[in-house]
Specification:
444 residues, alpha+beta, Helix Hairpins, 4 domains, 5-stranded mixed beta sheet, 17% strand, disordered C terminus
């Protein structure tokens, strides 16, 4: 017999002992009456405790576990211990679930939890924003009902989730997502969506960059190769014609050299994220040198002016700023027609140091201005090749200025000219060590 039954067996034995003693003393009727009364009392005791147990089972709570005596004391004690363990387990599970949800809500990726029927059980705010969901409204909804795109439906039904799906939501076609389904548990799934819009743009730029470099190099190489084949096939070399061919090949070779030089400069600016060596730059001296270079590049075809209206120098890398200012100036010369005017100016404006290049050239349509600093972006490709530009000048200028916490501002009116301004923060301005005056020059 189990030890559990020892206590009630002992109690019943005790209840039976008293009537037996009474039977021997006074007779059977009084003894049986006492025995019945004791049994009824014992039964009522159990019914009372059963009623308490039934009431507690309807609303289990550690704080309200009934107190009993005898056998029920042990039963209620076991229930108390079990309920404590279950309460602790529920609390632990609840805490773990809250932590999971908090972690999911903090994730930069979208997370959607699906049940075995591909219905939404939970999602984080990022997923709500990416897919246009609302957890309070859409919980229990089929995901394919809310995301009605054939490619996603096919991906979900294929049950082959080793590779992610590149997906563009209908509600925002500019957004590019990488979707990955991860099965877990009892046929449940976790949908993870990652925003790869920027990565796709970078990849597109990389492809365009390779294509543009290949195109830019192929043209001069074709010209040089063609002339070399012509010279190789000529039995009698005419001196004048040979010199003409060599001059043309020299021009194309120079064009390739400039392109390679600009590519190396741009690569160095983009890849070097460490702090560069900075010195005090005598901006007026730098601009005088730049002005002389502009005169040489113009060859007398433009009216050039240099205005020095600030007495400040700059803290920065002189080679990088020379390259940036030089590209802004050469662009103005290339895209300004003969007898046009170009003004280089150094001034202070609202506490900032501003170097600007103003020209009276052809100007730029407003839709092109945001893309001018992209590598190889040209408003007019045929005109760009005629002027000898590599298509990298403004990209180089922007990167160099960014490394100096400066910004490039572009203002332009088609047919009237453009102004390119490099604006430097006040913390980069340094008092000059000698007085500077206004200097104007003109190349007629």
């Amino acid at each position: 017999m189990s030890s559990f039954w020892l206590r009630p067996a002992a109690t019943l034995s005790t209840l039976a002992a008293f009537p037996l003693v009474l039977w021997a003393a006074v007779g059977a009727v009084p003894a049986l009456s006492l025995f019945v009364a004791l049994l009824l009392s014992y039964l009522l005791h159990h019914l009372y405790n059963l009623r308490a147990l039934a009431g507690w089972l309807n609303k289990p709570d550690v704080a309200t576990v009934p107190h009993g005596s005898g056998l029920w004391e042990e039963v209620f004690s076991v229930l108390y211990q079990r309920e404590r363990l279950q309460s602790y387990s529920r609390q632990s599970l609840s805490t773990a679930l809250e932590r999971f949800q908090s972690a999911g809500e903090a994730m930069p990726d979208g997370i959607v939890m699906l049940n075995s029927g591909d219905q939404i059980e939970w999602c984080n705010p990022v997923a709500e924003d990416q897919f246009g969901l609302n957890l309070a409204r859409d919980r229990g909804q089929w995901l394919t009902y809310l995301i009605r795109q054939a490619q996603f439906t096919d991906y979900l039904a294929a049950h082959n989730y080793r590779e992610p799906l590149i997906f563009k939501p209908t509600r925002n076609r500019e957004l590019v997502l990488s979707l990955q389904l991860i099965p877990f548990g009892d046929e449940q799934k976790l949908l993870i969506s990652r925003d790869i819009t920027q990565l796709e743009r970078v990849e597109t730029m990389r492809r365009d960059f390779v294509a543009n470099v290949s195109h830019e190099l192929s043209t001069p190489l074709t010209v040089v190769g063609g002339f070399l084949e012509t010279l190789a096939d000529m039995t009698h070399l005419d001196e004048a014609q040979t010199k003409h061919y060599l001059d043309l090949m020299l021009d194309q070779t120079s064009r390739m050299q400039h392109l390679v030089k600009d590519l190396l400069t741009l690569s160095r600016l983009e890849s070097n994220h460490s702090a560069h060596a900075e010195v005090k730059i005598d901006v007026p001296r730098l601009l005088r040198a730049l002005f002389r270079e502009a005169q040489t590049l113009s060859g007398g075809r433009h009216r050039l002016r240099l205005n020095l209206d600030s007495t400040h120098w700059l803290l920065g890398n002189e080679a990088e700023l020379h390259s940036a200012f030089g590209n802004l100036t050469s662009n103005a010369i290339r895209y300004t027609s003969e007898n046009g005017e170009i003004v280089l100016q150094w001034e202070e404006w609202e506490g900032e140091g501003v170097f600007s290049v103003q020209d009276s050239g052809i100007g730029i349509e407003p839709q092109h201005i945001p893309r001018l600093t992209e590598r190889f972006y040209r408003v007019d490709r045929s005109r760009s090749r005629e002027t000898g530009g590599t298509g990298l000048g403004l990209a180089i200028a922007k990167h160099a200025l960014t490394r100096h916490q400066a910004r490039l501002e572009i203002e332009s009116t088609p047919g009237r000219g453009s102004t390119f301004s490099a604006c430097f923060p006040a913390r980069r301005l340094i008092e000059a060590s000698k007085p500077l005056g206004r200097e104007e020059a003109q190349d007629s």
